[in-house]
Amino acid sequence: MTAITIGEPGAIQSAQARMAPPSRFGDRAFEWLTLAMALSVVVLIVLTGWQLWSGSMLAIKKFGFHFVTNSTWDPVGEEFGALPFIYGTLVSSFLGLLIAVPLGIATAAFLTELAPLWIRQPLVSLIEMLAAIPSVILGLWGIFVMIPWLRDYPVPVLKRFLGWTPFFSGPMYGPCMLAGGIIIAIMILPIITSVSREILRSVPDLQREAAYALGATRWEATRIAVLSYAKKGLFAAVILGLARALGETMAVTMVIGNTPQIVLSLFQPGYTLASVLANEFTEATTDMYLQALFAIGLVLFGITIVVNLLAQLLLRTITTQSGTRAVQ
Amino acid sequence: MRFETAHQHTWRKIKSASACTIAFVSAVLVMSPLALVFCYLLIKGAGSVNLDFFTKLPTPVGVPGGGMANAIVGSLILLALAGAVGIPVGVLGGVYLAEYGSARLSSGLRFLADVLNGVPSITWGIVVYGLIVLRFKGFSAYAGGFALALIMIPLILRTTEEVILLVPNGYREASLALGVSRWKTIVHIVLKTASKGIITGILLALARVGGETAPLLFTAFGNRFWNHSLSQPIAALPIQIFTYAISPYEDWHRQAWAGALVLVSGVFCVNILVRILTRGRGGSVG
């Protein structure tokens, strides 16, 4: 019997010893570096919350919860209540959604279901261009083109037919809640349209085929098989639009009139959380004034974070269900 | 069982046709602001865009002429500062999410980045005001650039991650099999393969923050003259447009339209450039 040795253990070891041990330092350093950068999103959220909280400490201590229920905003008398701004933000955003949601979803349906194929991509590009227009430019256009046009054409008609309701009473002089709502609608249309379009595109073709096989017309197939199937996703698109609407700043500031008041008429000027920040932050002369503005920022940050969380959670449940990736 | 009558069938067809028409009209309405804004910018702004606009400082009220040279340069400086912070943080963060992070951690961070993308830009203005302006007792170009960088980070992070995930795994495996270390594989193979998409994302983020006004109002603040030190207030095109637009002077309104035309042209040029860059891939990024 001869013992067959395939290789002596010692030989292998010496071969390994001759090669330099692979250095893992670069790998580890790079991983830590990228991790630190990725964690910046956590840092940003915490930092923002902390900065807004500590910046508004005095105001929170002095006014407490009363801050969001008080409707007086009097920098001279040092009485600060955020209610007019919360009201203005909610009303203008709601108005914006009222206009933008039907238009956006109809456009998304047109782009995915009804339009001829060759026109779809160019239209999508145009919507991306609309999204790229800076807010301040839309505001400029709003002041000098949209408001005069509104005053001359649609408002008299609205007044004639709906003037008896509190929403359309009184004269419109210029910047007003209605103008703010329309500008918000224009600003959020691209996001509502593009997210809805992604959602509708992710509806399985089987749905459509089934509807057509049953003899549905084009509209019936869209309504029954596509729109109602995608209901939840479309809702997420609306919430995402709402989040944008709540935080829209420059264009709204330029057309909404900037008067802290709570009135039902849409022809009257209003004020939003974001626009009071844009207008008054650099003018805050006293500590309490600045603190109150920080508190406004905190309210705005809180609201938009919650709405965004909701929208992202909704989108996430949908994407995991259908197994496709929807854009944010 | 009753079958549909011819009359009912026609009715359903009419309904379908009218729904299609409504959808078409909606699409036209959605596009119309784009066309309207662009037309008015050309009508009202083109007349005031001349050589002076690009080379001269703003004039005091009542003195005709002048330009926005300082604001244009200021915007570019702010973009450079924002890019210096925002691009490396965003790209490297995106690398972590795509290459290293466990599924759970990555998905959590991705979620937060998406939430951050929805935070109103004016919030970053306040945060940077508290962090930098109050601390260093003054508005500065640094503060403005930093505020813009904070907006860029989650934007770039998400687009970078998405394009890195598109790089086929075979590339990584081939490189690792040759004994190349992981980080070198990522830098030389993965990032290089995804570079077109990453650059696209960076350009889109720059175009987006280039038009931002709200975060600059109380960080960069604006300046009617040349900025001589980055720790001083600096002019930016969007702030200048805003100040001029809400002023009561005709002359300034004209300048605002001209500035808006220049700003939109810049933003659209970047968008078209991106479209050309990504054309080969069929489909759009962002």
Q: Mind explaining what this structure looks like?
A:
The complex is a heterodimer of chains A (328) and B (286). Chain A has a two-stranded antiparallel ribbon. Helices cover 71% and strands 1% of the residues of chain A. Chain A has a single domain (53-322), classed as MetI-like (MetI-like fold, Orthogonal Bundle), CATH 1.10.3720. The radius of gyration of chain A is 28 Å and the shape is flat. The model of chain A is unreliable at 323-328 (pLDDT under 50). Chain A contains 15 helices and 2 strands. Chain A is mainly alpha-helical and 328 residues long. The N and C termini of chain A lie far apart (72 Å). In chain A, helix 5 packs across helix 12 and helix 6 (117-132) packs across helix 9. Chain A has helices spanning 9-18, 25-38, 40-55, 57-63, 83-114, 117-132, 135-152, 154-162, 177-201, 205-213, 218-227, 231-247, 250-255, 273-280, 287-322; strands at residues 73-74, 79-80. Chain B is mainly α and 286 residues long. Chain B has a domain at 73-242: MetI-like (MetI-like fold), CATH 1.10.3720. Chain B is 73% helix and 0% strand. Chain B contains 11 helices and no strands. Chain B has helices at 6-45, 51-55, 69-100, 103-117, 121-136, 141-165, 169-177, 182-193, 195-210, 237-245, 250-278. The radius of gyration of chain B is 24 Å and the shape is flat. The N and C termini of chain B lie far apart (52 Å). The model of chain B is unreliable at 282-286 (pLDDT under 50). At the A-B interface, helix 2, helix 3, helix 5, helix 6 and helix 7 of A face helix 1, helix 3, helix 4, helix 5 and helix 6 of B.
